[in-house]
């Protein structure tokens, strides 16, 4: 454990006033909830809004509702995404089908998606991973003909939009996450949004019997939020970052998560959501631009930002040239406390619990993303000198690993080891 300035890979700071609002939520549970529903409905331009215990819980309820409407069972997921997503599919007793992902945009490989989109598919998860905007209208057009629902996964992209339309308002139904490290947080929470009355009615049937959280559960979450707020500051983050048993940032496949309503304390914690979201988005956009400029000078390859809207990078994606390079930069980051992180350890195909079901569903591009992607922090704690140090670390890792290795794609492209890649941006 090294006592030094240490950046968390992602952070959603909240103010003391928000913690107080959380406790006040207990005094006026119904009116605070109704106000939040109305505000989200207006922001997304949708009629139906529900708040639940997590993004996974939201997705589980959506899948159960859609299954009730069409009877189909196949859920198409991007081959590279958070392990919570297949967890929810399995929890809803449906089957996972993998579509490969374009490594330069993190959008679907549309050639693959159009082959998969037949009348056996219940829905496709259009996922704005890392806050990168993907082409949801194109997914909708492809799915419409086959009666496939489009579920927009906005867990990592709250605040982004395509033109004037917020991410989350383009699919048939969408969900948000308010987990730790998301755009805004209340500890753990999620929202479901839809403008479709038929889906709305089916969801209301799923939501009505959900249990409430106990008072002890509510207070425990509040305390965790308060302690997290203290420890995510770069001056103190060395402490939790140095405790491996906390397993910070680890992504897990598990299906026994709670599915409940969002409790009044968490609703209260979200009361000033718009102010916090605006602040978070402004700093992510500004830092992403700064990082882009810095990496362009350093000739480090980044993923392609969405052109027709505004991606709001929850973390800034950089595709290293090889696994060796990725490992080198992650080691450097751990030593220097830079908050560079490697995201998910594999494509969904290689999650041990799903290996049998998915062994024949090859997603080579998603596997390559898992091997080469690193993400840079964009949150409010990032300083100008952090951006310079991060850029230096990426260059240093390229020098060290590039001299030693040739990655498969370099071989395929006929490139010399360590030679600069064509700039994507
Ligand atoms: C892309 C994506 N979808 C869904 C989820 C699930 O959200 P939650 O953690 O709130 O269950 C996450 C969580 O990290 C996510 O990153």
Helix share bin: 40-55%
What is the highest CATH level, the class of the largest domain?
Alpha Beta
Secondary-structure content class? alpha/beta
Total count of domains:
2
In one word, what is the shape? globular
CATH superfamily label of the largest domain: Type I PLP-dependent aspartate aminotransferase-like (Major domain)
Number of beta strands: 12
Largest beta sheet: what is the strand line-up? 1-9-8-5-4-2-3
- Give the count of helical stretches: 16
Residue share in β-strands = 5-15%
CATH architecture of the largest domain: 3-Layer(aba) Sandwich
User: What is the name of the CATH topology of the largest domain?
Assistant: Aspartate Aminotransferase, domain 2
Main beta-sheet strand count, sense and barrel state: 7 strands, mixed
Can you list the ligands bound to this structure? pyridoxal-5'-phosphate
Computed CA radius of gyration, to the nearest angstrom: 21 Å
Mean pLDDT: 90
List unreliable stretches of 5+ residues: 405-425
Features:
2 domains, binds pyridoxal-5'-phosphate, 425 residues, 7-stranded mixed sheet, Aspartate Aminotransferase, domain 1, 3-stranded antiparallel sheet, Aspartate Aminotransferase, domain 2, alpha/beta
